[in-house]
Design the sequence.
């Protein structure tokens, strides 16, 4: 299932909305598909899926259990896990640093 091309909303928001509908039919503790599976399903990059999952995590609908995966919340978990947030911020910073480095290499030493 690809996201609607004519939908003006950002792709992470579209992903979060679709998963939110599915989560309402799932039991607490149910495991969501992997980020890779979701990226293939929605035909987007893994980071786009991660951003969509972050929306749901901030709403308290899902939680991450380390390397075990992403699960439907039972509503009793805190909406924010500081360690997970820091890990995500570091990941995003590294991705940005990699992108800047690639752009700098393309532009050459004098910026042209």
Sequence:
């Amino acid at each position: 299932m690809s996201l609607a091309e004519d939908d003006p909303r950002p792709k992470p928001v579209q992903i979060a909305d679709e998963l939110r509908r599915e989560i309402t039919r799932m039991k607490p503790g149910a495991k969501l598909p992997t980020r890779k599976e979701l990226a293939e399903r929605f035909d987007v990059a893994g980071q786009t899926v991660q951003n969509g999952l972050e929306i749901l995590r901030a709403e308290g609908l899902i939680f991450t259990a380390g390397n075990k995966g992403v699960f439907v919340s039972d509503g009793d978990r805190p909406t924010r896990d500081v360690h997970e947030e820091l890990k995500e911020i570091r990941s995003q910073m590294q991705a940005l640093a990699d992108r800047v480095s690639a752009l700098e290499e393309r532009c050459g030493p004098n910026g042209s």
Observations:
- Residues 82-107 form the longest helix (26 residues).
- Residues 106 and 112 are 9 Å apart (CA to CA).
- Strands lie at 62-64, 70-72.
- The longest strand covers residues 62-64.
